[in-house]
Write a structure and sequence with these properties.
Blueprint (H helix, E strand, L loop, with lengths): L2 E6 L5 E7 L6 E6 L7 H12 L2 E6 L15 H12 L3 H19 L7 E5 L1 H12 L5 E5 L16 E6 L7 H10 L4 E5 L16 H18 L3
Length: about 230
């Protein structure tokens, strides 16, 4: 089980985060929330990665708009999450992601490689934007990031892997095709029978088969690019 910590971004903003695992583990990873906050599901994701050998920090990105926010997977949660996301500029969110990477580096000491980053839904898009807007990460994994297509022509500064659901009504097939065409060097996996949020067991769209395969691929990708 992990625990709550407090971090500070470069602009002085203090925010909460969930930390799992310790600095003695082989790999370091920033886990980026969906639009539902750092809730029970995201904490479970962090704990699972810690059990697999990752020292994890997941920043509470909504703290810039409404500290302590944890939302459910119903319409009210979706509406509130979208409203909160709209209040936070990308450049501010990137400061929180960079602060999380810096905290991992500080805790782990010199001579260790940069952390990886993995995100889901909004976090999937943010993982892509962290890869293209910063040099703080050694690898990025993006699960069903709906905003990636709009910035598909940007240049990533680290290896990237992406995962999409073939039945995701919020991310058209043409968007995934456009990303493939713009980024031929990125491995993109599509799970034909999966919808949006297929990796979250608390959602009706959870697809165990797609989740297990995507998780296996994600862990292998991260282990290959994170050198301890």
């Amino acid at each position: 089980m992990g625990h709550a910590i407090t971090l500070q971004a470069e602009d002085g903003h203090s925010f909460s985060a969930y930390e799992a695992g310790g600095a003695d583990l082989p790999y370091a990873l920033v886990v980026v929330q969906e639009i539902f906050g750092v809730n029970d599901h995201i904490r479970h994701v962090c704990d699972d990665f810690a059990a697999r050998g990752f020292h994890v920090i997941s920043p509470a990105l909504f703290d810039r708009a409404q500290p302590g926010t944890e939302l459910g997977y119903d319409k009210a949660g979706i509406d509130q999450g979208l409203a909160l996301r709209a209040q936070i500029p990308l450049e501010k969110t990137l400061l929180d992601l960079r602060a999380s990477a810096a905290a991992l580096a500080h805790k782990r000491g010199s001579g260790r490689s940069k952390p990886g980053i993995i995100g889901y839904c909004w976090g999937g898009t943010l993982a892509w934007q962290a890869a293209t807007h910063t040099h703080d990460f050694a690898a990025a994994v993006c699960w069903y990031g709906g905003g990636i297509a709009a910035s598909r022509n940007e240049t990533p500064h680290c290896p990237v892997e992406m995962h999409f659901g073939g039945q995701d009504s919020s991310i058209p097939h043409m968007d995934v095709t456009a990303i493939r065409e713009a980024q031929p060097g990125i491995e993109i996996f599509v799970y034909d029978e999966a919808g949006h949020g297929f990796g979250c067991a608390e959602r009706s769209s959870f697809n165990a088969e797609a989740y297990l395969l995507a998780q296996q691929r994600s862990v292998a990708f991260l282990e290959a690019h994170l050198k301890g």
